[in-house]
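Comment thread on ticket #2218

A.B. wrote:
> Attaching the input chain for the structure job we discussed in standup.
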Amino acid sequence: MRKKFAATLLVFLLILGIGSPIYAMPNEQHIAIQDFISEVQRVSRAPGIAASAVIGEETYFFSTGLAHRRDGISINQGTLFELASVSKQFTALGILYLEERGLLSLDDSIADHLPWLTFRYNEQPVDMQDVRLYHFMHHTSGLPLVPKEGLGTLQSGVEALIDSELLFFPGEQFEYGNGNYNILGLVIETVTGQSYESFMEGHIFRPLGMMQTFAYRENAVATGQFAQGYATQFVFFTVPRNAQESQKTENVPTGYLISSAQDMIRWMQVQLGLVTDIPEIFHTIIPRSHEQGRSVAIPEGFPFPVGSHYAGGWVLNAEQYSVEHGGNNPSFSTYVLLLPDEQVGITILANGCQVLDTNQIAHSIADILQGNLDVTYSMGGVQIQGIAFALITVIGTLLALVFFVFALGRIRKGDKRPLTKKRIALIALWAIVTLVMIVTLFVLPGLMGSGATWSLILSIVSLGALTWLIALILLCASITLFVAFVAFPQRRK
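C.D. wrote:
> Ran it. Output below, let me know if you need it in another format.
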């Protein structure tokens, strides 16, 4: 009797085991990933990080730090983060959804949907019939990275792009530009007669089973799960910071959708074809969003692998088959990495900006999953740049103070120095250097893209991006004063 019961139980257990996941993350890999995430937070000083992984049928979640430092609230799977430029892959899917429904085509001219939108190239009007929707999807429209600011709505943000001077004729090159996806978002509104937010929540997020993903910010805030965003100033100081209201409302399609680690797990499962309980249309358009289509190879100088192609909100790496994209907002950093051949997906969400190299984090976790348990995190270029800005600010300000005090002391003594040719030449030199620095202060935003302002720049990068320049101006001015009143003392007779 006991033997029959044991045999029956064994058969039952074997039946239960059929179809169960083959892969289960070894404990040492799990520990290595959690230790790595903790190391990332220690090195970067990021407030909080959520990392999620899909490996075949298995899903995993790792976290460190806080969603709200003041209240001591830890990050969990339901914590909500701004997705930054990861938002683009959702907007692209919305466009492909409408194309599959026959409501538009990627071959459509932008003039078919936004007939009032005009561009210029080489100071001449562009024939907008030649500008197609796929140019915007693949960042080949010629628009610069930083769009002009509007009046706080998606419509006004796109209207601010009227008569923009393109960097090249549409289709000729790749130039990552946020305005491209805002235009696609407005096309969605024009075609559907709905707001972009309503369309995305009703036709994309909810049908995909993503109940914690939002286009309406107020809906996300109402959950009580929205993480506070932070910015790091001068390397060691982290302060709460939110994007300007106009940025958030004008740029939802390109960078301000909101989601959780739990929903991003679902998103990766959808992308990897691991779920079946979604409308049939998505089984068609998801693979299309991973196709390079009419994109051009991404050249050197962009934070993407050289030779990669831009698809529907995704970057396709030609060397190692991967589908990936990251993003940075004024106070959030994100990354999604898919390795379709291995059925692996990794998402990084963090409520800190300027300090995190989310690309490095995602790929390092992939390395751990492939057996390399000894990965370490090194400071990203932006964090190193922030340290340099802070050092220049501090050292430049101190030296400026020293030169100024010496010069002021000499002035108070009433010493008069002869204006030799050498002195005049040095005074003129340092005065010119000071003037050049001042001019740089005013023209630098314009060099970073059409419509860029210091206000916009400082909402994206740290305050050190401005203070180092001011410190150098003060230093040059103080040296000019020093040369005029202190250098080359008179020889005693």
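A.B. wrote:
> Thanks. Noting for the ticket: Confidence is low (pLDDT under 50) at residues 1-22.
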